[in-house]
Structures are given as C-alpha cells and as structure tokens.
Amino acid sequence: MKNTKNNYLPRRLKLSFFLFCLFSVLISQGENLNVLDMGAKSDGLALNTSIIQKAIDQCSQTGGGDVIFPQGKYLTGSIILKSGVCLNLQKGATLLGSTNLEDYQPIKPDYVALRTGEQTIQLIFAEGQDDIGIIGQGTIDGQGKVFVRDGNDEGILRPHIIQFINCKNILVEGIFMTNSGAWMQHYLACDNLQIRGVRVYNHCNYNNDGIDIDGCHDVIISDCIVDSDDDGICLKSTSPRACRNVTINNCVVHSHCNALKLGTETTGGFQNIQISNCLVSPSAKETCFYGLPEGQSAISVEMVDGGILDQVSIDHITILETRCPIFVRLGNRARKYSPEAPQPLIGSLRNVSITNVMATTSSKTTSNITGIPGAYAENIYLGNIQITNKSKATAEDGAIVVPEKDAGYPTSGMFGNVLPASALFVRHVKNITFDNVRLIMENENVLPAFVLDDVQGISIRYPQLQTSSEIELATQKDCKNVRIVQ
Q: Among 112, 129, 369, 425, which is most exposed with the fewest C-beta within 10 angstroms?
C-alpha cells in the first residue's frame, strides 16, 4: 500500500519546512569546503585563522556554501564571515578561540551605535553581509577565562564570540557556545534572524550575556537553553533603530542577572515583541562574577534612554526562584548612543501584557512596576499571575520609604533590597489592570499584597490571598480611579 503519511502534514508545517529548505539552498548553493582539505589542523594547537578565512572568502566568491569543520579542535583568532557562507560545525567539532589577543583583529564598524565608536575584537564578525549562518552539532569555545577585566573593556580586551552588524538572512542553529570573554552573541541592526536550538553556557568572565538582540527586525529565537552569568536573553536598542517584530519562545533560561530582558539600552525602543512558553530558574553554578546566585529578575521591561516601547506581550512563563519575578521600569537615565547624538528625552512605555506567570521568590525585593514623577508607564495588563513568596517580613519592612530614582542604571534592586509589598509595588503608572493575581505566602509576612503610589486608573479583579495571617490587599497613596472587584 502506498505510504501517504507526508500528504497529511499540516500546511503550516509544510510551509515551514519549505522555507527552511529554501534558506539552506540559498546559503549552500555554491561550493562546500572542508577546512581539513584546505590545510587546517584539528589538534587544538595549530592556529588556523588564515586557512579558515581563506575558505570563507573562496566559498563566498564562488556563490556561497558551507565551510565544514569535521570532528576535531580548530584553534583560531578573528574570522570575518562573508555573504552566502555558513559555518558548519559537525558533531565532535570545536572551534577554539585563541587565548592570545594578538590573534584578534580590531575592527571599527561603519554602523554607529553605543558600542561601535571604537575598535573592538570578536571571534566571528560580519558587517553588511547577507545569507550567513552558523549551524551544526559542534561547539564554539571562546576560552574567555584568560582575558582579565580592566575597567570597561568589554569587547575591547575581552572578545565576544559572535558580532553580526547590519546583516540580513541569518541562521544560527544547533550549536553549543561557551566561555566567551564578554557577551556571547551580539546581533546589531540585523534583519531576518533565526536562532534555533542553540545552547549557551557562559560563566567564565564579566559581561557574560547569553544572547543580545540589538535594534534588529524580524527575529525568531526558539528552543534554546541559555545559562549565563549576566543577562540571559536580552533585547537592546543601542542606536535609533528599534527592536521590532521579535518572537522568543520555548526557551529555558538560567541567569545570575536578568533572564528575559528588554533593556538596558533603549535609544530606539521596542515594538511588537512576543515572549512565550519559557522556563526561568537559577543557574546550577552558584558563584558569580556579577549578579546573584538566585538571579536578579526573571522578566525585565525597561525604558530609560528615550525611545518608545509599545506592544509587548509576555505569556506562559514559569519562574522557579529569583530575586524579582517581574520588573517594569520607565526612567530617565538619558544616555546618548554617540557623542554627537542629541540628548534623549524621556521615553514612553505602554501597552505591555504579562499573563500566565507562575513564580516563586524568597526575596523581599518583590515585583515592581514604576515610572517617574510626571512620566507614567501606561496601559499595562497582568493576568493569571501566581506568586509564591517565601520571605519573612515585618511591620518595620512595611514602613520603609521607597526612594525616588529618576536616573541611574535600571535594575530590580535599584530601590533597595526590601520593598513594602509582598506581591507588587506600583508607582507612577496610568491605566493598569491586575486580573486573577494569586499570592501565596509560605512564611510570616505582614506586608500588603499591593502597594500603590500615584497610580491613575487601576483595576484589581478577583485577587486571591493565601496567607497564614491577615494582611491588607492594597494600600494607596495619591491614587485615582481605583477599582477593586473581589
């Protein structure tokens, strides 16, 4: 009997498979080159930079294709990826970053952004290239532990593993990446970027982010596992170009800092961002270069350098322990992205939906959503949120006066390690709704669930408090149009 199984594939799956095959053809239609055939050594000792670069250049010039790394260890300094070329690290292959700074090529990009004003060093770099990729079951190991931090030298004396700038049609898939000297991956002003099934373990140095998406359009990050000393999956905007049309789903993130983050740099803003079906928990590695063993925050949404944040949806996030489950911040740090840039005005943060979150925390920092006097975070919806709070807190903790901080670096602990709410501290916010928020207290904690300060238009609908003692649902100061439905 004829097998007709493939005829019943869903149309969406067929289309996705077709697009994947098309992309693979586009970046592999030319000549595939094996680096061993080009003279590379796979002993982890011989420096292969010039041989790998020759393979990339030749592959690009002949129409594109794969530069293949069979099983073995390939030591290299900076390599420049070219249009049409895909690095294919086969199972058992490891691309080793050199531990000698002289093997890295200082490059000053043409694109103007916060971190491109001077020469920086990368292991794999590309600017203005199309149809590029890094795929396979192999490993990229930056050996970044050897690069000693010297002030603000991230990317200068401590190389990133990947930096792609102003590139289009990028596929990064299947690779395991570890031990970067600073950020692991920085994608700046790129279009049509897919990162799929990538694993990151980055705990060898300062600024050890996992994935940084910076002013990119049309991005999909899916099925990744990120374990990082600094931010896990982080969206930034370090130039006037917004992060736009970004989807992050089905990822597991362990971070000593902020697991899922929009910010800190926000010049161009964030528009049409969707994050869903992700798990957040502390890293098994308890020692930190920066941050906290349990992590600073699970969800961070920040606007502090001007720009517009609009249409952000975060849904189905499970959080197993962190200092602050949810941190939303509109501030006025007003950092310029270049010396010649105009001084940023106060930005805007609006239309944010955070739903179906289950979180556990043992911290008294609590979740907080704040603007600044005269500049409100607006139109925020939180629905089906369950927070289990294991901390102990007293009446003295509830009497703390939370300082105003208009400027400064935004972090969930910026107001101190103790906030006077057991679930959410909300200040300088307009039009915010809490639907079906459930607070479970596992220790003696007398703090009110919500502390509201200068909130203009708030609806708390069907809250649930599971506590061992009587606590207030909410306290209010200078609030208008408060509606509570129990």
A: 112
List the structure tokens of 393: 């807190």
pTM above the 0.85 mark?
yes
Are the beta carbons of 227 and 201 closer than 8 angstroms?
Answer: yes
Dihedral sign from CA coordinates of 151, 156, 160, 163: positive
DSSP string, 70-125: -SEEEEE--EE--TTEEEEE-TTEEEEEPS-GGGS--B--SS-STT-SS-B-EEEE
* Inter-residue contact 430 to 453 (CB < 8 Å): no
CB–CB of 66/33 below 8 Å? yes
Q: Kindly list the distances between the CA atom of residue 172 and the CA atoms of 14, 200, 299, in Å, as whole numbers in the listed order.
A: 21, 12, 24
**3-state SS class at 59:** helix
Residue 29 pLDDT exceeds 70? no
Cβ atoms of 325 and 361 within 8 Å: the answer is yes
Q: How far is CA 206 from CA 202, 219, 231, 252, 479, in A?
A: 10, 26, 11, 21, 42
As separate numbers, helices (DSSP H) first and strands (DSSP E) second, the chain gives 3, 35
Amino acid at 166: N
CA distance 354 to 155: 34
Residues 6+ apart with CB under 8 A from 340: none
For 65-114, the pLDDT digits (tens) are 999 999 999 999 999 999 999 999 999 999 999 999 999 999 999 999 99
- SS3 string, 272-290, reads EEEEEEEEEECCCCCCCCC
Which residues face 378 on adjacent strands? Answer: 350, 430
Phi, psi of 39 (to 5 degrees): 110, 5
* b/e code 101-137 from CB counts within 10 Å (16+ = b): bebbbebebeeebbbbeeebbbbbbbbebbbbbbbbe
Residue 352 · residue 330 · CB < 8 Å: no
- Token pair listed for 202: 């980055």
pLDDT, tens digit, for every residue of 188-201?
Answer: 999 999 999 999 99
Cα separation, 417 vs 475, in Å, equals 20
Q: Are residues 253 and 201 in contact, defined by beta-carbon separation less than 8 angstroms? A: no
Using the Cα atoms of residue 301, residue 308, residue 219 and residue 174 in order, give the sign of their dihedral.
Answer: negative
